[in-house]
Automatic annotation (TrEMBL):
All residue ranges annotated as the Amidase domain in the record: 5-373
PANTHER family xref list: AMIDASE 1, OUTER ENVELOPE PROTEIN 64, CHLOROPLASTIC
Protein name: Amidase domain-containing protein
Stretches forming TPR repeats: 406-439, 474-507
Organism: Panicum hallii var. hallii
PROSITE patterns, sorted: TPR
Keyword field: TPR repeat
SMART domains named among the record's database cross-references: TPR (SM00028)
Keyword Cell inner membrane annotated: no
Length: 522
């Protein structure tokens, strides 16, 4: 656990020697720690955090910077650096951390381990030194998704329930533009995993435009020196509101001690705390409330938002980048989504890029923690399998370009389909198939367009091709069943609809079709 959680008989150092010297040993243990010990865990020690938990880098001049096992010449990320390092290094099965503006998610990404930030206020914050109560959340790290889930069940006090599969995956394309890692390197693994496990396509969204349409008050935080990139004004404004709230609440909690003791704080903390300007805290809280409503409306109870966890590889130790406003803004821009909405988020390692850990994050609406933990439990092995496939494949640059162009053609085809431009959609899906004929979704989508054009024979053939490539693609069975019904092959149609029900027992379209055909042709 980190040095912000109280353990009876020990001083909670808060990453500061001066803090440790001016505070007594605790008389009570954090309820979270007690719950885990009661559940069978063994507490083996406390870990280092950034000084007063204020940074996202993982550096600490008092206790030294924990060495990142995944990239020893890089920072481990903060504030819960020691916990992430302990898990990544195999010293413990799991460790606790505190996440206000990214303090669990960022070190998890930088050290290449699973990192879970639960929904705000669903885990007890008792026995914890606060930094920004509106943002503070106890999170945890693990290498194994089953351990991550087990810890969650203990802390969230969850009873047994059937696993509920996700129905919608939203990839925030604009957020991936903020990352220095090639977007395809991150999103391809998720896309292929979703298609393989659930027979579904991901949905591409522009989060910048969505937030702008849902949270009009963001414009109040769009001006000022922090907005270096006008391409993402809403995302940056959300980040600014979070940083203002974080600084205000930190000062409210600790400035009295700082002014009294006058500790030798890190220069970056001093600089940040001394910046002029009064924060509109009521306005920040309004943005926070509306962010929760906005993401809740998008994701509902069965949706997952996919974003990069961090803006790139972990910076090198003592790099100038760590003091760069651009680096901090872009990284915090991504973490502000869950911090300000209070949604739950998990960072998932995706192997390495340039010998450094990389990751993506899944976000679910506030209160859907069980759903998110179950989703990771279900998907993790397949995600890592896809990571290995990607790492081992020696795809030529031409093939890679073709695959990317095929995806672009598919997206254009989807847009044409939505506009009811059926022939244009067929042409675009055909282009995608010519570029990459190994993707079942392309054939299934073209079949949907052929159905609209009443070209049932072509639709049947495309669905068969899709099923040959991926026997679990539910939509292909539904579309082939429809095509066969329209051509009078009723027995074969029933077989297709029945197969769709086997793959997806709650599929209403298949159930209605079978009942209709059985009534007409008993």
């Amino acid at each position: 656990m980190i040095c912000r959680l109280h353990v009876s008989g020990y001083i909670t150092s808060f990453g500061s020697l001066e803090w440790a010297k001016t505070h007594d040993a605790e008389t009570q243990t954090s309820p979270v720690v007690s719950a885990l010990v009661d559940g069978g865990a063994v507490c083996v020690g406390k870990t280092v955090i950034d000084e007063m938990a204020y940074s996202i880098h993982g550096e600490n001049k008092h206790f030294d910077t924990p060495t990142n096992p995944a990239a020893p010449d890089r920072v481990p990320g903060g504030c819960s650096s020691g916990s992430a390092v302990a898990v990544a290094g195999g010293m413990v099965d799991f460790a606790l951390g505190i996440d206000s503006i990214g303090g669990v998610r960022i070190p998890g990404a930088y050290c290449g381990v699973l990192a879970f930030r639960p929904s705000h206020a669903v885990v007890s914050s008792g026995g914890v030194i606060p930094v920004a109560p509106s943002l503070d959340t106890i999170g945890w790290f693990a290498r194994d998704p089953s351990v991550l889930r087990r810890v969650g069940h203990l802390l969230l006090r969850l009873n047994y329930a059937d696993i509920r599969p996700p129905r919608h995956f939203y990839i925030a394309d604009d957020c991936f533009e903020l990352s220095k890692i090639p977007a395809r390197r991150l999103t391809q693994v998720v896309t292929k995993s979703v298609e393989k496990l659930f027979g579904r396509q991901v949905t591409r969204v522009n989060l910048e435009n969505y937030l702008a349409s849902k949270i009009s008050s963001l414009r109040n935080y769009s001006n000022g020196h922090r907005n270096g990139d006008s391409k993402f004004p809403s995302l940056l404004a959300l980040c600014n509101a979070m940083r203002s709230l974080h600084k205000h609440e930190f000062k409210d909690q600790h400035m009295e001690w700082i002014n009294s003791v006058k500790p030798a704080l890190d220069a970056r903390i001093v600089s940040n705390l001394s910046e002029d300007g009064d924060s509109d805290i009521d306005g920040c809280q309004d943005v926070r409330n509306k962010a929760r409503l906005a993401l809740g409306a998008l994701l509902k109870d069965d949706g997952i938002l996919v974003i990069p966890t961090a803006s790139g590889c972990p910076p090198k130790l003592n790099a100038k980048e760590l003091s760069s406003e651009s680096y901090n803004s872009q990284t915090l821009c991504l973490s502000s989504l869950a911090s300000m909405s209070g949604c739950c988020q998990v960072s998932i390692p995706l192997g390495t890029h340039d010998k450094c850990p990389v990751s993506v994050s899944f976000i679910a609406r506030h209160g859907c923690d069980r759903f998110l933990l179950d989703t990771i439990q279900t998907m993790y092995a397949t995600i890592q399998e896809q990571v290995e496939i990607l790492a081992k494949s020696n795809v030529s640059s031409k093939q890679a370009m073709n695959e990317e162009a095929a995806e672009a053609a598919k997206e254009k085809g989807n847009a044409a389909f939505k506009e009811k431009q059926w022939q244009k959609a067929v042409n675009l899906y055909t282009e995608a198939i010519k570029l990459n004929g190994k993707v079942a979704t392309y054939y299934s989508n073209r079949a949907a367009a052929f159905l609209e054009l009443t070209s049932y024979r072509q639709a049947e053939a495309d669905c068969t091709s899709a099923i040959d490539l991926d026997p679990k693609i539910v939509k292909a069975y539904l579309r082939r069943g429809t095509a066969r019904e329209m051509m009078g092959y009723y027995k074969e149609a029933v077989e297709d609809f029945s197969h769709a029900l086997v793959l997806e027992p709650m599929n209403k379209t298949a159930g209605v079709a079978i009942n209709r055909l059985k009534k007409l042709f008993p």
